[in-house]
Protein: TetR/AcrR family transcriptional regulator
Organism: Roseibium aestuarii
Amino acid sequence: MAKPARKTGGTANASEDTSQPKTARGEATRKAILTAAERVIGARGFNDASIGHITSEAGVAQGTFYIYFKSKDEVFHELVLEMGRLVRRELSQATRDIPNRLDAEKAGLTAFLEFVRAHPDLYRIVQEALFVDQDAYNAYYQAFSEGYRKGLEAAVEAGHIRPGDADTRAWALMGISRSLGERLVIWGDTTPIDEIVATVHDMIANGLKP
Amino acid sequence: MAKPARKTGGTANASEDTSQPKTARGEATRKAILTAAERVIGARGFNDASIGHITSEAGVAQGTFYIYFKSKDEVFHELVLEMGRLVRRELSQATRDIPNRLDAEKAGLTAFLEFVRAHPDLYRIVQEALFVDQDAYNAYYQAFSEGYRKGLEAAVEAGHIRPGDADTRAWALMGISRSLGERLVIWGDTTPIDEIVATVHDMIANGLKP
């Protein structure tokens, strides 16, 4: 696209530079700071959240923050990466033993919505990454769309779903998950997840079956 | 949800307060400022865009901005409202003479993707509204989901689609459009829109038909 590049925060490789804690206590402190940052940035947004808010929420001295992270940008970047890792792990665990793709879609959608309902702040942080740290945002969605595309291609090969462009289908299905996740997080929807999934899976399964 | 309210910019009723230009020339200037703001905020993001950037892009003096808008928040709010108005008009024109819901879904998806490809900056601005002006963001999606829900309920009544929870389906279908729109805007996808729509409509039509 011919448009000026947005500021990406310059933190693309930040996690490689971070001092990794050497002790169990150090690891616990780092984790406490990340958990506090998730809550504070999720609730206030990146610009209004300060390092002081984060350390106060974590119950540590402000100087302690800088032992583990260089900046607010870096902790934000780490949270987006963590959301990606956690969601991919949840989805892979939820779908691992399910051979049929349509059944796996259903289990994956359920696992995703349960994760998002349990981690509303992480969901908001990933959405805000488009405006704060576009490298992290791109990496998050690229990893998902790649995996999704390959899974759909394999399912067409196996005859589990009928032929159709895998990349476009992957973005459409990701869009369904994301929108239903947002309905839980931003709109406070309280419909039981199994009811949401039953409605949507009826559409997806009939829409994709051979 | 039990979480602190985000800053919403306090501009929910801003457009009512704005001085409305009385002359055609005034209207043209106001429009030039809005168009410039769309480009500048879309490219730089809300925080990095300044009123100076906007007036420089519009080719007007900085003081002229304040004849029409109180603040950057107010011009942002107005852009989100405008995106809503324009998209609703496009969709209603594209689907007006189509009696069958499934055909209307296809025409609506096509019109939406064409609009988004032509207005990438407006698309980004609506997404950023979640973090800058949540009232405007909510109003945008509420208007869409309400209209969508009613349309799907009527289609079930008419026997054009099979029964199913209209609200959940509305969010799922909105998610498909949004994700495919984002693929065009953020990822620079160049697939022809009719090919994208053909793939996705195959899934939607089979997923919803009676």
Q: What stands out?
A: Residues 72-95 of chain A form the longest helix (24 residues).
